[in-house]
Amino acid sequence: MSHVRKQLVYEKIAHTFLGLAAALTAAPVIIIIVFLLVKGSAALTPEFLTGMPREGMKSGGIFPAILGTFYLVIGTVLFSVPVGTLAAIYLTEYAKQGRLTRTIRLAIANMAGVPSVVYGLFGLGLFVLFLKMGTSLLAGSLTLGILVLPVVITAAEEALLAVPQSFRQASLALGATRWQTTRKVVLPNSISGIITGTVLAIGRAAGETAAIMFTVAAFFLPALPSSPFSQAMALPYHLYTVSTQVPGMPEAIKWGTALVLLLLVLLFTLTAALVRARFRRKKRW
Hints:
Blueprint: H1 3-40, H2 46-50, E1 53-54, E2 59-60, H3 63-94, H4 99-112, H5 116-130, H6 137-161, H7 165-173, H8 178-206, H9 210-213, H10 235-244, H11 251-281
Antiparallel strand pairs: 1-2
Helix pairs in contact: 1-11, 3-6, 3-8, 4-6, 5-6, 6-8, 7-8, 8-11, 10-11
């Protein structure tokens, strides 16, 4: 067998193993989605999606939990994306690369590894008790915002660094200031990467339980939140409650709640992905 033929055989073997690895990675996700569709689709009735919980959550709907999750995700994005993007701009465009920036990046990496229950206790101590926000949507959103900040900062920083330096040099050579260059040249060409960080933040925030159980989530609240300082139900905590804390809970409610949570996360992610794709099409490099 010739050397070229051997290389082709090895390449086919490598492609086969890479394809198997990709299939093994995707298989659990597909299995979970199919399993939830089979077990929970029967519960997706108009009453279940738009009604209030009744009889200690053993009947009725989960609309307060759906709306509470929606508010929490929006609040988290409104806090984490601007703050995380500004932090990434400072690290990439203004800060001198040295011990300080290395320390900041190390702190960001360590923040990503902190358990979510620690963030929940931090939010309880700072926002709920010290700042006297009480258990509220605002306290929960700020806690989740801090939790996802490392993801947003890392994604935004990588997106900013991917913009060619020649773009910056050309803008500065034409007389633009550094901020004008950042705002008019760098940010528009990195927005798709920043949205990628937003997508990851949405997925993380929508599925968190420990971080909200101390700061916002209510066990049983058959009412809609009326202000940012209102307590609210949330799908992750609701799912935990009906699965472990309420005896005799109908199986349809458990699986239906899990399916709604999955569909809500997919809806947020798909929306952000479509926006990202639109910005990517506008790129010229």
